[in-house]
Design a protein that fits this description.
This protein is an all-alpha fold and about 140 residues long. It is built from six helices and no strands.
C-alpha cells in the first residue's frame, strides 16, 4: 500500500505550485501490476484534483488580498484573463504543465463556482491519467 500513498502524495504535489512526476510514478506502478489499475487511477486522480483545489483556494485567498490591478506577475494576469474568457471549461485543461496551475489559481481568483470547477478539474485529471494507464497497461 505504500505505492498507493506515494502515488497520492506525488499526484497532490504535482498539482500544486511544486513540480512533480506523478505520471512516471503511475506508469511505474501500472507496469508492476501489483496494485489494481482502478485503484491507481482513482488515487492519482483524487490526489491531483485535491492539489488543484488547493491552488483554486489560493487564488480565492489572493483575490481578497490583492486586486487584479495590483498584480505584477504578467503570467497570473494572463491566466485570469484567459479563464475569464473561456470560463469553467478551461479547467478541463488543468492537467497541462505550467498553465494548468494558473488556470486553477485564476478560477479561484474569479470565484467561479466551486462545484463546477471541481468537476471540470477532476474530469480533466481523470482523462490524462486514464491515457497514461492505457499506454502503460
Amino acid at each position: 500500500m505504500s505505492g498507493v500513498w506515494g502515488l497520492f502524495l506525488s499526484a497532490f504535489i504535482s498539482s500544486t505550485i511544486a513540480p512533480g512526476g506523478s505520471e512516471a510514478v503511475l506508469a511505474y506502478l501500472v507496469n508492476q501490476a501489483e496494485i489494481p489499475v482502478g485503484l491507481l487511477l482513482l488515487t492519482a486522480t483524487v490526489g491531483n484534483t485535491l492539489g488543484a483545489v488547493t491552488t483554486w483556494l489560493l487564488g480565492l485567498w489572493a483575490a481578497r488580498r490583492y486586486p487584479l490591478d495590483k498584480l505584477k506577475d504578467e503570467k497570473q494576469r494572463k491566466a485570469i484573463h484567459t479563464v475569464r474568457h473561456y470560463g469553467v471549461p478551461i479547467l478541463l485543461l488543468s492537467w497541462l504543465p505550467i498553465v494548468g496551475d494558473g488556470f486553477c489559481f485564476a478560477a479561484g481568483w474569479l470565484e467561479m463556482s466551486f462545484m463546477a470547477s471541481l468537476i471540470a478539474i477532476a474530469v480533466g485529471k481523470l482523462g490524462r491519467y486514464a491515457a497514461i494507464v492505457y499506454l502503460f497497461s
